[in-house]
Amino acid sequence: MDVYSIGTGDMNRRSFLKSTVGVATSLAASSYLRAQGANDAIRVAFIGMGSKVKIGGMGRNDMKGCRGVPGVRIAALCDVDSANLGYAVEECGKHNEKPETFADYRRLLERKDIDAVWVTTPNHWHALVCIHAAQAGKHVFVQKPVCHNLFEGRRMVQAARKYNRVMYSATLTRSMAGFREAARFALDGNLGKPLYIHAVRYGARTSIGKVDAPTPIPKTIDYDLWCGPAPVKPLMRQNLHYDWHWDWDYGNGELGNWGIHLLDGAREVAGKGMPRSVLSVGGRFGYTDDGVTPNTQITIFNYDPLPIIYEMRALPSGKSRWKDGGWGQQDMDTFHGQAYTTCVQCEGGYTVGNKAFDKADKLVQAFTPALKSPRAAFFDAVRGAESMPYYDIAEAHVSTSLVHLGNISHRLGQAVPPDQIRERVAFNADFQNAWERMAVHLDANGVDVRKTPPTLGPFLQFDPAAERFTGAFADEANRYLGRDYRKGFEVPDRV
């Protein structure tokens, strides 16, 4: 396939986003090129159906949602696990649908009558599937986080532009009723001077277990194809499906799983691009299992004038809430009464979801949404309607960069005594207060941070225009911006 380079290192962030938005808008008129005409059904294929492990089945959930959009036909399904494919086929049968099935998405993309693909694979496959789909002339909707590393996100933007394809993604916050309207109300000064943006996800996450020897690979899975761009290694966890989130080779931890929903909204309402610096403190506490990513973490992204602080907790409010090593969402801490929210904190009040409150917690105003749903926006754009940059891959790439930067700070970190952490985070009073709350939370769960100190990452400087780290630790941090790919599964340097 013909490839060429689209350089962006010499462009500033603002000019690049402006140019990509313009292209996204201009491609809409010519995006739906099928000879059958704009009134015919859009034929969509789903790649990655999801399992029945834990909360698996994201592909089937998205298929259900798309089924309710007028003028959309489910034409094909793909999954490397024949069991997952079988669950999806069974569901389609209940709706008198007979989609063609594939184990290898590359064979699916050869079908000329597929207009769009919906990508719900594990994270390490997102970029390559999306790039190949664009090259095959398909429009793409990809689940969050859109890429496994920052290098991949840039290549996805380039592929969408070069091949003139609609490539969308969305998060819960971007789809949340009235969230951005409430946030904008606060940022405009209606609650006094805005101070910072605070996002939290206190979500129950118990141990994934620990194995002493490799777990047999289910016979229903083409494991080599499942691994794809990532290393093929023994399965050292109980479940192949879903728990890949907590393995750096395939997933992006809780920042990529839930954090992206909140960080995306926080970054978007602030109207900012990539952050200029980042710092993470956290670790995996409360149990010993085969997961390697943090289950408790605070990350600060420095934007001028409003930093973004993200808190994540997987343990309950205290040890008393543990029930045979397990707990549920009802056992979690809350922030402003919510376990999952993005708030704009101001001198005279704050926002939570679609509501604005004063300092006395009195409701000031509630807001209604002003946006089209992401599914409707995607299929409208495929048909040739005006594109919505709000859901465009360029925006998703920028938001996902926060996931990668926060994880990189953590991965380069070291276990540090709590007194030293307190000193290192003192540059921001709100971040320091978040750390003190985290220490109290861990103590309530029987975790002595003096004996089991958290990992404090380095304070990393970042150049948004070049999409590279600078300053101290730059060499080490820049190694995490991409990855080594297996032969035959390389994300190309040029698309």
Key terms:
single chain; 495 residues; alpha/beta; 6-stranded parallel beta sheet; 18 strands
Unreliable stretches, pLDDT < 50, 5 or more residues?
Answer: 1-37
Give the number of DSSP strands. Answer: 18
Radius of gyration: 22 Å
> What is the helix tally?
15
Number of domains: 2
Query: Structural class of the secondary structure composition?
Result: alpha/beta
Largest sheet geometry: 12 strands, mixed
Please bin the fraction of helical residues: 25-40%
**Beta-strand percent range:** 15-25%
Mean pLDDT: 91
Shape: globular
The separation of the N and C termini measures 9 Å
Tell me what the structure shows:
The chain is an alpha/beta fold and 495 residues long. It has two domains: 13-174 and 375-389, Rossmann fold; 194-366 and 397-481, no CATH class. It contains 15 helices and 18 strands. The protein has helices at residues 13-31, 58-67, 82-93, 105-108, 123-135, 150-162, 172-175, 179-187, 223-227, 253-270, 374-383, 393-411, 418-424, 429-444, 474-478, and strands at residues 42-47, 72-78, 100-102, 116-119, 139-142, 167-168, 194-202, 277-283, 296-301, 308-313, 340-346, 349-352, 355-358, 363-366, 414-415, 455-456, 460-463, 468-470. The strands form two sheets. Strands 7, 8, 9, 10, 11, 12, 13, 14, 15, 16, 17 and 18 form a twelve-stranded mixed β-sheet that branches. It has a six-stranded parallel β-sheet with strand order 3-2-1-4-5-6, with helices on both faces. α5 runs parallel beside α6 (150-162) and α6 runs antiparallel to α12 (393-411). The longest helix has 19 residues, at 13-31. Residues 1-37 have low confidence and may be disordered.
